[in-house]
Design brief:
Blueprint: H1 2-10, E1 23-25, E2 29-36, E3 39-52, E4 55-63, E5 69-76, H2 87-90, H3 123-147
Antiparallel strand pairs: 1-2, 2-3, 3-4, 4-5
Amino acid sequence: QARVEALAAILPQFDNNIADEGVPVDGGLTVYPATLGGAPAGVAVETFSDNGFSGRITILAGFAPDGAVTGFRVLQHAETPGLGARMGEWFGAEGTSHDISGSTKELSVKADGGDVDAITGATITSRAFLEALNKARVAYNDYQSQQK
């Protein structure tokens, strides 16, 4: 039930039984294709990074049919409370230089030459979060190319 709620929160409207239609892909990720009236509505990818400050970070990232990020949910982490643990709010803060919504390209933190502000005091967590998101984008692109 929690996965279904997370999928509904990060994707455009869909009417298929998405939680039961996950497709395992290379690298240990899972792709969840969403449809509305039989037409593609978006794709969610369960992804991870093992490079968080305190280990694995698992997220669910949503993508529109055009590849834009529609949302995300942090599913699991062991990051420092008040620092890295803020990633769920930080990367979804609308209209900021760390809002990833709508992005269509690979992302990295400004400290690495990218466009995204890292969480203050939690650059390692920020890098790991974006690594997981970028892995999701690759899985999304691979899935989309297989559907054509």
